[in-house]
């Protein structure tokens, strides 16, 4: 509100010096009448706001103005030709480019690396969600990968770790549903930690292992501070194991849920009967909001993909966690 007033004042103060030139600008005759005023210099700037001044500098301002109105871009051919030829009059071509900004010939693929994760959505290459896989080769056609084979030694160590955590689980038979869906050595987890109910959710050992350590070493300690005396007694699961594509889409990459690597937390159950529901907390300044944000941030230490509520449209009411394997221990946490 204050700005308008300031502007008005500045304008009021300015009038004196600019009075004469102000009248002239609109008229095309001005140059003849008042060659002295540098007004022409000021005019060229508004039209071509682009940074490409080199072209305009070499030529008179008037010439630059004329070409800009032309909507016809030189496209690739014009831009490519001028470069090799040392002709001194290449300026017209560059002037046309400013409109498009960057030559269209440039590779738009730069986006691929990692733009913004869009959650589990993988259909479009640019989406981030359960981010694009480390495999750059498979872009469009998503060939269902084979079910991940558990390494005997790794599995043995993992199961021993679950025993140490006090996880209540049982091993079950291999799941293989085709289309890449399945788990080589699944386990059903009744309690990921003693007294923390997970409803018998099916997953790979390493997923349960990440869940257990996250809850024990980060989530419960955070709750001890946020709500002293409260204990987590369970997780209200969202999606656990499910043979589907990311975000339940009809096309795209297979979800980590279909491989036993993912677990969605819809809410934490507390010993007093309360639930802490996962939801967007961007504007939540409560202690409960602080707790969720702490738990979510801490999850990135245990999981390679963390998609918090609000990270995209597909994750409004749950926290997506998965242990997708990527090169270099790369992780995406949003
Ligand atoms: Zn999920």
UniProtKB/TrEMBL annotation:
<feature type="compositionally biased region" description="Low complexity">
    <location>
        <begin position="1"/>
        <end position="13"/>
    </location>
</feature>
<protein>
    <submittedName>
        <fullName>Extensin family protein</fullName>
    </submittedName>
</protein>
<feature type="domain" description="Extensin-like C-terminal">
    <location>
        <begin position="157"/>
        <end position="333"/>
    </location>
</feature>
<feature type="compositionally biased region" description="Pro residues">
    <location>
        <begin position="83"/>
        <end position="95"/>
    </location>
</feature>
<feature type="compositionally biased region" description="Low complexity">
    <location>
        <begin position="20"/>
        <end position="36"/>
    </location>
</feature>
<dbReference type="Pfam" id="PF06904">
    <property type="entry name" value="Extensin-like_C"/>
</dbReference>
<feature type="compositionally biased region" description="Low complexity">
    <location>
        <begin position="113"/>
        <end position="130"/>
    </location>
</feature>
<feature type="region of interest" description="Disordered">
    <location>
        <begin position="1"/>
        <end position="150"/>
    </location>
</feature>
<dbReference type="InterPro" id="IPR009683">
    <property type="entry name" value="Extensin-like_C"/>
</dbReference>
<feature type="compositionally biased region" description="Basic and acidic residues">
    <location>
        <begin position="101"/>
        <end position="112"/>
    </location>
</feature>
């Amino acid at each position: 509100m204050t700005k308008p007033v300031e502007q008005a004042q500045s304008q009021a103060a300015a009038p004196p010096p600019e009075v004469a030139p102000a009248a002239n600008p609109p008229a095309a005759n001005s140059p003849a009448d008042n060659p002295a005023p540098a007004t022409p210099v000021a005019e060229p700037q508004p039209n071509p706001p682009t940074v490409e001044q080199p072209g305009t500098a070499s030529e008179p301002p008037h010439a630059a103005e004329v070409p800009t109105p032309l909507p016809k871009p030189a496209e690739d051919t014009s831009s490519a030709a001028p470069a090799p030829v040392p002709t001194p009059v290449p300026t017209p071509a560059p002037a046309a480019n400013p409109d498009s900004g960057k030559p269209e010939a440039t590779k738009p693929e730069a986006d691929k690396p990692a733009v913004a994760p869009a959650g589990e959505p993988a259909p479009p290459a640019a989406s981030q969600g359960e981010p694009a896989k480390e495999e750059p080769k498979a872009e469009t056609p998503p060939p269902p990968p084979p079910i991940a084979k558990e390494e005997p030694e790794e599995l043995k160590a993992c199961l021993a770790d679950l025993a140490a955590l006090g996880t209540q689980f049982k091993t079950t038979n291999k799941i293989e549903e085709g289309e890449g869906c399945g788990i080589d050595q699944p386990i059903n987890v009744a309690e990921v930690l003693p007294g923390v109910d997970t409803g018998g959710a099916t997953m790979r050992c390493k997923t349960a292992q990440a869940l257990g350590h996250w809850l024990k070493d980060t989530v419960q300690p955070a709750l001890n501070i946020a709500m002293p005396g409260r204990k987590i007694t369970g997780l209200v699961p969202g999606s656990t194991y499910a043979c589907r594509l990311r975000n339940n889409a009809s096309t795209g990459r297979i979800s980590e849920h279909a491989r036993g690597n993912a677990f969605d937390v819809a809410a934490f159950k507390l010993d007093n009967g309360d639930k802490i529901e996962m939801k967007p907390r961007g504007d939540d300044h409560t202690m409960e909001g602080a707790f969720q944000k702490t738990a979510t941030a801490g999850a990135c230490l245990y999981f390679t993909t963390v998609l918090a509520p609000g990270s995209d449209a597909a994750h409004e009411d749950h926290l997506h966690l998965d242990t997708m394997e990527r090169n270099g221990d790369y992780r995406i946490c949003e």
